[in-house]
Amino acid sequence: MNILTRIRRSERVARTGLAIWGLYKANALSRRLTGRSDERTPNSVHEHSAKLLLNTALDLRGVIIKFCQVTAARADVVPPIVSETLKQCHDAVPPKDFPVIRAAIEREFGRPLEEIYKEFEPEPLAAASLAQVHRATLLDGRRVAVKVQYPDIEEIVRTDLANMRRACSIYERFDPQPMDLLPLVVELTQYIELELDFLREADNADRVRELFADDSRVSVPVIHRKYSTRRVLTMELIDGIKVTDRDELVAAGLEPADVVQDLMSTWVRMILAAGFFQADPHPGNLFVRRDGVLILLDFGLCKELPEGFGLGLFELMFSMMTLNESAMLRAFHELGFETRDGDSSTFLLIARRMMERSETGRFEGEFTEEMTDELFEAVRENPVVKVPSDFVLVGRAFSLLSGIAHTLGSRANVLEAMGATTN
After folding, report:
1. Distance CA 98, CA 92 (A)
2. Which residues lie closer than 8 Å to 254 by C-beta, 6 or more apart?
3. Which of 62, 318, 327, 368 makes a 20 to 30 Å CA pair with 68?
């Protein structure tokens, strides 16, 4: 990436940051001039700011898109309208032209594309913030999917992260932030360093495949190490039905409720039993073979959970089901929640808010999107100073699975999945 490109990216990030800052300052000034006592920022300001950030991300691509995706997942930090707006980054990433991808592969392997792959489809199967995936065939006839990292993405990442840290630091130093974004940049830095190393992703895939070696209901594509590097990942191509395509599942003779049960059992086993899980189970990463086998893809974002996390999560769920408030407090502490003033009663308020989303007033086994939204809304309104990122990732994963279940006309019940897993 040349100096002019770095300057252009820095200028665009600075311009966007200044525009967002101006929106919030104008709103604060308006409140003072009109004498309004309501200090809440209108949703229109949050939404306009989010759209400015989204447009910048789609123009610059790279880590800015990843930042939007991480921000969208942190509903405990940002207002719901911001989270909803930035979720578009999951589906709106335009692919790179094929000559760019060809050049990247040939540079990585040091030889022509035709010496590696017998066939290589120019149109990608999917495009994301850091890479895109193409269907191909090896010289020996094996069908594969090839994930190719975008050229110069590592330098782009360094430039963009430096720009965002600088912008957030300026906000923190000179003006109270309407949203606490610097911790998100720190969190993003940790995740993106992991996702840029495709050999690590291959290790993650192998680990999850080994975990389910005794479970014929789950399939993880085999990685072809000979044709994989830190920037190119070649894996077994497994055709399947998109997990949210209910009509196609039914046409294949599959019962959507069984698919949901298998999904939940799979993530319960990873999170509660193994303490290691694929942390991004959105519909683009999940397919179902016509014989009902669940296909898991994309292991760039996998998380090793701290020892005892699974037990703490189970205790939280069970205490919310039995309305045992002392056990709730113990579970929140075990999971790593902290309050600014050390007052644990805040956790009970949060738990009650979550349970209000249930018809019975107690946890019934499903982490719905509404329940997790209520959790994060309660967190924003109460003096919680630390929400462990592990809990956020797990909550987001269960929320995504709940959304898939509802699309299929079913429910994603964690407790039922736990029972099925232990049988």
Report:
1. 18
2. 241, 288, 290, 292
3. 368
What are the residue ranges spanned by the domains of the chain? 3-89+154-195, 97-149+197-238, 239-423
pTM (2 d.p.): 0.77
Query: Nearest CA to 155 among 1, 5, 9?
Result: 1
- Whole-angstrom distance, CA of residue 199 vs CA of residue 165: 28
Pairing of strands 276-278, 126-127: unpaired
- Whether the pLDDT of residue 406 is over 70: the answer is yes
Cβ pair 224, 138 in contact under 8 A: yes
For 188-220, what is each residue's pLDDT tens digit? 666 777 788 999 999 999 999 999 999 999 999
List b or e across 50-83, with b for residues whose CB sees 16 or more CB atoms inside 10 angstroms: bebbbebbbebbbbbbbbbbbbbbbbbbbbebbb
Phi-psi region of 384 (alpha: psi -120 to 50; beta: other; left: phi over 0): beta
Which of 76, 160, 262, 280 is catalytic? The answer is 280
343-349 contacts at long range (C-beta below 8 A, 24 or more positions apart): 343/383, 346/382, 346/383, 346/384, 349/378, 349/382
Instruction: Supply 118's token pair.
Output: 């017998």
The single-letter code of the amino acid at 223 is: I
Residue 35 pLDDT more than 50?
Answer: yes
| Rounded distance between C-alpha atoms, residue 392 and residue 78, angstroms | 13
Which CATH architecture best describes the domain 97-149+197-238?
A: 2-Layer Sandwich (3.30)
The Cα 54–Cα 58 span in angstroms is 6
- Dump pLDDT digits (tens) for 40-65: 677 888 888 889 888 888 787 767 77
Alpha-carbon distances of 348 from 320, 360, 398, 415, rounded to whole Å: 10, 17, 21, 21
